[in-house]
Amino acid sequence: MQAVIYAMIKKDYTTERSREGTAALDDGKRSAAMREVVMNKKTNLLQLEEHFYQLVDVEEPNVFHNLFPYSEIPKIAFNDRIVPHNMPENIWITDTTFRDGQQSRAPYTTEQIVTIYDYLHRLGGPNGMIRQSEFFLYSKKDRDAVYKCMERGYQFPEVTSWIRASKEDFKLVKEIGMKETGILVSCSDYHIFLKLKMNRRQAMEHYLSVVRDCLEEGISVRCHLEDITRADIYGYVVPFCLELMKLMEEYKIPIKVRACDTMGYGVNYPGAVIPRSVQGIIYALHTHAGVPHELLEWHGHNDFYKAVVNSTTAWLYGCSGVNTSLFGIGERTGNTPLEAMVFEYAQLKGGLNGMDTTVITELAEYYEKEIGYHIPSRTPFVGKNFNVTRAGVHADGLLKNEEIYNIFDTDKFLNRPVLCAVSNTSGLAGIAHWINSYYKLPEDKQLEKSSPLVHELKIWVDQQYEDGRVTVMTDNELVAKIGEVCDKLNISLYD
User: Fold this and answer.
1) How many structural domains is the chain composed of?
2) Would the pLDDT of 5 be above 90?
3) Do 14 and 41 contact (CB within 8 A), yes or no?
4) 392 and 353 in a common domain
5) Domain for residue 308, yes or no?
6) Contact between residue 159 and residue 150 where contact means Cβ atoms under 8 Å apart
7) Do 17 and 145 reside in the same domain of the chain?
8) What pLDDT, in 10s, does the model give residues 64-81?
9) 106 and 32, same structural domain?
10) What is the extent of the structural domain holding 33?
């Protein structure tokens, strides 16, 4: 099956250059005069053959202190080199809720993992828009969850693992019978020199040996290029990925490359310099390292509030996959929120391709009620105040036509009708809208601002705040008062 997958990938991706004969060059590089003129099969234009990229094995680490001065705020520099949009025909989401998503909170129980996995399966829909979910293997609890999720027999999300680049860790993958595993592959000099105490060549040889061990067992590898936004892209990352592509050719087993913005330094600005440029990194991996779209993935962190926009940019410039976690829960400031990329996909593609977005609301409720995780109230799509307005002028607009102040039909896509909180700023329109929404009154029974019930309720609300109240009215308070007023006026909401 893997050979078939590889053949399909190879058919879709045609290299535009030949590297034959490069080994005979003394310095491993081609001069401009030696580079061939070739036809680009995508653009149908002649172009100069790309440079040959080899490892730059430096003696001292290059930590780009001109861009990352530790005692100052990191700097964004520009060289105005623009690369073209290159969005793949097929894009999808992968999930790290059970791996990175467990690094900043109390671990999930086995039962919670299996339940969330079921939700992800439903959310991804019949076309498997959530392709994979990755798991730790180090605890019995996590391994039990892996077995139970695999027993579900779902095609999507595929159960995958994550390990360190260690032969001991690889034993766990073999024991469980994984078809694919992620491997942590540090690629910046911060990690290679300062953490691993290696040089670039030693690191490359070590990582390639672990990858080869996996391939020897018929296991597909997903290389997590850690800290890529502080790495020497053309001096290390591209040469390393070229070696990965050679191994893929040798073993006929797909090798994925995940670009990991570990510290959230990536930026989406056109013309920004690498290693911080998301566009530049993806262009280098696809065009210069030859990694097919289908095998490219982006993993973002939110340290500089750019996780979502950087993930979308990765899609636009050549990644088929973006890696996410539910509600953005992850290391430090978190990962790219899965629910955000669901709606990014719909905006880019013009539809959901089978995804059931109402499951997002079910997941939020499950996290709040069963797991005890508090989602900030103003979190897009899932916070309790996401589509709640307090301003009277907004409420008046909603009463006339909810399209004026609601981003889309939230009742349809999230099973969350637009609401107005009742407070001292709600006005008659806000109260009327709250009643209509809470009681789900049919269109012909909905109340206007002129309703006697609405006026009586407004008098009571105003008195509450004149007496010193500072909080919004609760649903229970409003329901009780509406019952009193209906009895007083001898009316029914459904008359």
Assistant:
1) 3
2) no
3) yes
4) no
5) yes
6) yes
7) no
8) 999 999 999 999 999 999
9) no
10) 2-48
Local structure of 41: helix, strand or coil: coil
Residue 75 lies in a domain: no
Residue 52 in tokens? 């040959």
CB under 8 Å to 342, separation ≥6 — which residues? 93, 123, 129, 352, 355, 357, 360
Q: How many CB atoms lie within 10 A of CB 373?
A: 15
What pTM was computed for the model? 0.86
Tens digit of pLDDT for each residue in 215-244? 999 999 999 999 999 999 999 999 999 999
Q: Lowest-confidence range among 271-275, 470-474, 484-488?
A: 470-474
What helix, strand, coil percent values describe the chain, rounded to 5? 45, 15, 45
Residues 350 and 392 placed together within one structural domain of the fold: no
Q: Is residue 382 part of a domain?
A: no
Q: Identify whether residues 365 and 392 lie together within a single domain.
A: no
Question: How many percent of the chain have pLDDT more than 70?
Answer: 91
Task: Note whether 313 and 187 are same-domain residues.
Answer: yes
* 424 and 365, same domain (yes or no): no
Q: Parallel, antiparallel, or unpaired for β 130-135 and 158-163?
A: parallel
CA distance 444 to 71: 64
SS3 85: coil
Whether 295 is covered by a domain: the verdict is yes
Q: Are residues 229 and 311 in the same domain?
A: yes
User: Which segments of 262-358 are extended strands (E)?
Assistant: 296-300, 321-324
Q: Which long-range contacts (CB under 8 A, 24 or more apart) does 303-306 make?
A: 303/263, 303/264, 303/265, 303/332, 303/333, 304/264, 304/265, 306/264, 306/266, 306/267, 306/268
> How are beta strands 45-48 and 37-40 bridged, if at all?
antiparallel
Q: Rounded distance, CA 361 to CA 97, Å? A: 17
What is the rounded distance in angstroms from the CA atom of residue 125 to the CA atom of residue 355?
A: 5
pLDDT band at 433 (very low <50, low <70, confident <90, very high): confident
Q: Residue 489, Cβ neighbours under 10 Å: how many?
A: 12
Amino acid at 333: T
